[in-house]
Amino acid sequence: MRKHLIGAAGLAGVTALLVGCSSAPAQSATTEAAPTPEQIKALFADWNTALATGDAQKVADRYAPNAVLLPTVSNQVRSTRAEIVDYFEHFLLNRPSGEILDSHVAVLDADDAIDAGTYRFSLTKDGRPTTVDARYTFVYEKIGGKWLIVNHHSSAMPEQA
Fold it and tell me: Considering only CA atoms, which of 139, 142, 145, 155 is closest in space to residue 4?
């Protein structure tokens, strides 16, 4: 299993490389067709559906065994399934529902893609509805025929809208 270590600078470098690349779809060694950007964007809907179940285990199932989560409302880096489950057990108490505001997909090859942009979460805190806008990066890898999150970074917007 490949490890993905992509920070903000790495993502910028990958994006810059992709801008200069041919528009021909990437092919893996097995000549499997690369996914479309729309297929990668749809992975967020699957993740959001898992959030709606209120089950932290179902959300964690969307992450690869070696995934790293840099969550929005915790300072702790989550790099094990148990840590990811722990984060979502607390986060799901707010009944979150996400909406993509701006998405930029980079399909790297048939098995790897990045979706980065901004999203808005509707939450219920202390019985009152609220929203939080945040930046996100999802790095996906197709493992055993299933698209999984290998790296997820989310951080609240630093400036007021």
Answer: 139
d(CA 9, CA 6): 8
* Structure-block tokens of residue 80: 């094990």
Please choose, from the candidates 29, 26, 33, the residue with its C-alpha nearest in 3D space to the C-alpha of residue 107: 26
CATH no. of 33-156 = 3.10.450.50
- Ordered by start, the domain boundaries in the chain are 33-156
pLDDT tens, residue by residue, 16-41 = 333 344 444 444 455 789 999 999 99
| Single-letter amino acid code for the residue at 121 | F
Q: b or e along 47-81 (b: 16 or more beta carbons within 10 Å of the residue's beta carbon)?
A: bbebbeeeebebbbebbbebbbbbbbbeeeebeeb
Q: How far apart are CA 157 and CA 38, in angstroms?
A: 25
Nearest CA among 109, 143, 145 for reference residue 27 = 109
Q: What is the largest CA-CA distance in the chain?
A: 52
Asked if 25 and 107 touch (Cβ cutoff 8 Å), the reply is yes
